[in-house]
Design goal:
By secondary structure, the chain is α+β, with helices and mostly antiparallel strands. The protein has 9 helices and 8 strands.
């Protein structure tokens, strides 16, 4: 961010929203003040202002949580994205055909966000929850975005990213990751082999826009036994073919 263009009060309000969104429960004023390091009076003023616009609300004990206005914004935003409308019948179809969870993703500030998903028939709870943020270096969709983005952008993102080892299979070496990205470009899809969650494997393929960029990714995630299995190979073929269809539809 360019500090000269940042309005500090707005930036602090956004930080508070991020904090409340990350919390698994409503937070007290004292807790928020302690975690941000800001005076209670500053935090209270920001929260009170946001509460007037329903961006923040309070429960019966006076603790703070996200407000209904954010839900309204989210619904408005999702309704305005053509990609979700276009991709939805495709992801629902291949989820039904494969029995696995199918997801549609976008990249934002060096992290992957799930825009939409279709659940599998087994009810398996995966990491591809709508709206969640996922790391870029150890998910199939994250590696896919890295492989297809301009080199300067990739260097910038990786210079700030921590290649955290989520499992013993996570790629934590920049050199090994670069080799993986070259492979992804050559084969046209990306694979996650238990690198983010042990036992989970996924495959993602690029959705191209009219300019040839890759703003979206579609993928399948599940408890595949191994990436060499026929089941996983079939999932890969389906994902690549579906990504091509969505790209043409765009």
């Amino acid at each position: 961010m360019q500090e000269g263009k940042i309005i500090q009060s707005v930036a602090k309000a956004m930080c508070l929203l991020d904090l409340l969104a990350a919390s698994e429960r409503p937070m007290t004023l004292a807790e928020i003040s302690a975690q941000t390091g800001w005076p209670k009076s500053t935090v209270h003023g920001l929260l009170s202002t946001m509460r007037e616009f329903s961006a923040v609300s309070q429960d019966e004990d006076g603790r703070y949580l996200l407000g209904i206005r954010l839900f309204e914004y989210g619904c408005t935003l999702s309704n305005s994205w053509t990609i979700i409308e276009i991709a939805k019948p495709y992801i629902q179809h291949i989820s039904y055909e494969t029995g696995e969870t199918v997801f549609l993703s976008i990249l934002d500030r060096g992290e992957v966000i799930t825009l939409d998903r279709a659940d599998n028939r087994t009810g398996l709870n995966t990491t591809a929850e709508v709206g969640c943020r996922l790391p870029i270096h150890c998910t199939s969709q994250g590696k896919l975005f890295l492989a297809y983005m301009p080199e300067a952008e990739r260097r910038s993102i990786l210079s700030q990213a921590k290649l955290e080892p989520y499992t013993p299979l996570t790629i934590t070496s920049p050199e090994a990751l670069n080799r993986e990205l070259l492979l992804i470009r050559s084969q046209g899809y990306a694979i996650e082999n238990g690198e983010y969650k042990t036992g989970l494997r996924s495959v993602s393929a690029p959705i191209f826009d009219h300019a040839g960029a890759v703003p979206y990714a579609i993928g399948i995630i599940g408890m595949f036994r191994q990436i060499e299995s026929e089941q996983f190979s079939r999932a890969t073929r389906v994902v690549v073919e579906t990504a091509q269809k969505i790209s043409k539809a765009l």
